[in-house]
Amino acid sequence: MIQMRHPLEKFCCCPVCGSRQFVVNNVKSKRCEACGFVYYANPSSATAAFIVRGGRLLVARRGKEPAKGTLDLPGGFVDMDETAEEGMAREVMEETGLCVVRSAYLFSLPNIYVYSGMEIHTLDMFYRVEVAAEAEPQAGDDAGEVMWVPLDEVCPDLFGLASVRKAVGRFLEELRDGERK
C-alpha cells in the first residue's frame, strides 16, 4: 500500500506566528496550536493551450525539470491578480512568442507538479487557442523548442506531465469523435 504524505508535511512553522506547533488539522490543512491559524493546501492554477493549425498541433519540448526533454503544451502557472485566460495568453507568448487571438475553455484536470522537491497540487485548465495565421512560433522561457506535429502523429505517451498526457489523449479522442459525426 502506498503511504500518502500530507501536502503540507514540509511546512514546520506557522506562517503567522512562527510557532513550531503547526500540526495536521485534516487531510488538506495544518493548524497552529499557538495562535489558531489554519492553512489549507488548495491547488495552484495552471493552464495549457491546444493550438491547432492546418491539421497540426503546436507542442513544446520541456527545457527544464520536471520532465525535461519530454513534450508539453504551451502553458504554465497563473499569476496572482491574473485571470486564467490572461495567464494562458501570457504563457503562450512567453513560450512561443505567439499572441493569442481567441481562446475557448475546454476542461480541467488535477495534477501533481513536482517542484524543488515538493509536490504542488495544481488544477490544470485546458484551452483551445487561436493565434494569428501567419505567425510562426519561436521557443522561449522554459520551452527548449516548439514544433508543429501532425495530429495523426501526436502520441500522448510522449508528454511528460500526467495531466497533459491525459488531456492530449482526451483532446485527440474528442477530435476523432467530432470527425465521425
Task: List the SSEs and their pairings.
Layout lengths: L21 E5 L2 E4 L5 E3 L3 E10 L2 E7 L8 E2 L2 E3 L6 H13 L3 E16 L2 E14 L11 E8 L11 H19 L1
| Percent range of helical residues | 10-25%
Biggest beta-sheet profile: 7 strands, mixed
Mean pLDDT: 93
What series of H and E elements makes up the topology? EEEEEEEHEEEH
The total count of strands amounts to: 10
Strand content: 35-45%
Shape: elongated
Unreliable runs, pLDDT <50, ≥5 residues?
Answer: none
Counting DSSP H or I runs of 4 or more residues, the number of helices is: 2
Q: Which structural class fits the helix and strand makeup?
A: alpha+beta
Measured distance between first and last alpha carbons: 44 Å
Rg calc: 19 Å
Tell me what the structure shows.
With 181 residues, the chain is an alpha+beta fold. It has helices at residues 84-96, 162-180, and strands spanning 22-26, 29-32, 38-40, 44-53, 56-62, 71-72, 75-77, 100-115, 118-131, 143-150. The strands form two sheets. Strands 4, 5, 6, 7, 8, 9 and 10 form a seven-stranded mixed beta sheet that branches. A hairpin with an 8-residue loop joins β5 (56-62) and β6. The N and C termini lie far apart (44 Å).
Short synopsis of the structure:
The model has no long low-confidence stretch (mean pLDDT 93).
